[in-house]
Amino acid sequence: MSTNSQAILWALLAAALFSAVIALAKVAVVDYHVLQILLFRQVFVFMSSVPDILKAFPQSLKTRQPGLHALRLIGAFVALSTGIWAVAVLPLTTATTLTFAQVFFVAVLAAWFLKEPVGVHRLGAVLVGFIGVIVVMRPGVDGLIDLNSLIPVIGAFGAAVAVIAVRRLSQTETTATLLVYQSVFIGAAAALPMFWYWKTPDLAGLALLVSMGVLATAGQWIGVRALRLGEASVVGNIEYSKLIYAALLGWVIFEEVPDKYTIFGAAIIISSSLYIYRREAS
């Protein structure tokens, strides 16, 4: 298998894990503030990074690209916080669908900053996938005229910035270094407002928050591996698979039954991802 093909498989797994996390966030945000949920998530990411960091401390924390780390952290904070906020004010499938604007942002930024080739076939797959999104979101649905729909779109741009930065940083920095910077600085940003927003979780709430932290940590490690192996614009196309995961989780957890538009749009999105996968595998 080519490195891009391997990256696609890892990206599919990461997308599944992140979809599970965002579905659990939709449950958690009823009782806990967005930043408290984000804080728990970053604590677990940090804990997972500590063993690797200690092996070569303090060299493991040294970086030659602090500016790129800062850009990545800003993008990641925007993406993570708006991702939780979006599912609090929008249906799970709607919030997930609007985040697919990230694919466009990644394709543009990858060509601009990383000088990656974005040929006709790859760009066509991105466009076809987004047509599937439009089918799901068909004109007139509340998510398209609600100002809340801007929340996941802003998050999508932040996520794209983070993806491009990680793609560049992953060539010179270890996964542990990338994650410890994120967990420390984003965790600190989320922790400061806890003087006002902290709510001590009960046993069920603690289990929910811990589960989110564990799944998010696994998704982070796997996502970085995908970006280390493959081109950002290829890995970014796999974001569309989150729609399928969101539809299934929405049905199982929230009793949301996908309509015919969702099913048809999902078929287009799957076809788009399979097309680019087969081209990269050949």
From TrEMBL:
Intracellular or extracellular location(s): Membrane
Name of the protein in its database record: Membrane protein
Protein family per UniProt: Belongs to the drug/metabolite transporter (DMT) superfamily. 10 TMS drug/metabolite exporter (DME) (TC 2.A.7.3) family.
UniProt lineage: Bacteria, Pseudomonadati, Pseudomonadota, Alphaproteobacteria, Rhodobacterales
Residues annotated as transmembrane: 69-88, 94-114, 123-141, 147-166, 178-198, 204-222, 260-277
Location, primary (coarse class): membrane
Pfam families cross-referenced by the UniProt entry: EamA
InterPro entries xref list: EamA_dom, EmrE-like
Keyword Transcription: no
Swiss-Prot/TrEMBL keywords: Membrane, Transmembrane, Transmembrane helix
GO cellular component: membrane
Topology of the protein relative to the lipid bilayer: Multi-pass membrane protein
Coiled-coil residue windows: none
